[in-house]
Every structure is written in C-alpha cells, then in structure tokens.
Input
Amino acid sequence: PRESRKFHPHLTLGRVKAFFNLEPTLSELEKHRDTNFGEMKVKKITFFKSTLKPSGAEYSVIFESNLK
Output
C-alpha cells in the first residue's frame, strides 16, 4: 500500500551499521573521489539516525544545517 507520509526528496549517501571495520567502505569511496555525479541545488543538510524495527525504520534528526 502507498505510504501516508508526505514525500520529501532526499539522497542517501550511505549507512553505517557499526563504527568498526570501515576500511572497505572508505576504500570504495576513495575509488570514486574524482567521479562527477552531476549537480543539484541543496538548501539544507540533515543527518538522520535510523533505527530498524519490525514495523519499519524509525528516523530521528541528529544534526541539521541550512545552507546559503
């Protein structure tokens, strides 16, 4: 069924499940250091914490900043 939440366009850059053994992830990011993925206008950056539950993910804001 369609979600009842209002849609907010977003871009997920990544998910970190644990702060150990990050070397493979950082190595993969390094491979794309010079890759151009295009441009978009960004008004605000928000970092979320997602808590996975049987009923679905629950999101809470941990940092937010408006951009000029």
